[in-house]
Amino acid sequence: MRKIFTGLLVGLWVLGSEAGMLARDGGRPAMARMSERPTAHLSGLEEGGIYTDLPPVLVELKEVTPSMQVRVEVSRGPLRDGERGKVLRGSELARLPGDRAVMTVTGLQAACDRDGTWSVTIILRTPRGERQLATTTFELRRDLRSLDPASVRLDPGPNR
Fold it and tell me: pTM above 0.70?
């Protein structure tokens, strides 16, 4: 009798704790919560790349749900912890079949208003908070557009 009572008590505790987690996490079972790891990839900009003009930039996202919001921020210099950049308005998220989405980044050329180092960051916002999905740092050098390519000699560095 004692084993039955203990088994029943443990069973009720497990059911109660899972029901509490389901209510707290929007009714999704534990496996759905665990697999929810959105990722982002920036296409068009390479980490450490040097650009005289900025190319079109596309953000590819995987494992996004309708409750998630994504924004693009740009900041001058390499990204530092806790730093927020300027939000690029007008970049809209297009949801694809399944759990994928794409976003064309607009306003980057205008936001990067002078030569130097810039960082583009993809921020994910969920009901649980915000986190960075991807960051790319690059160099904008519009001043190199006016140079004759034949007159530019890039130093190969110590590894010739």
Answer: no
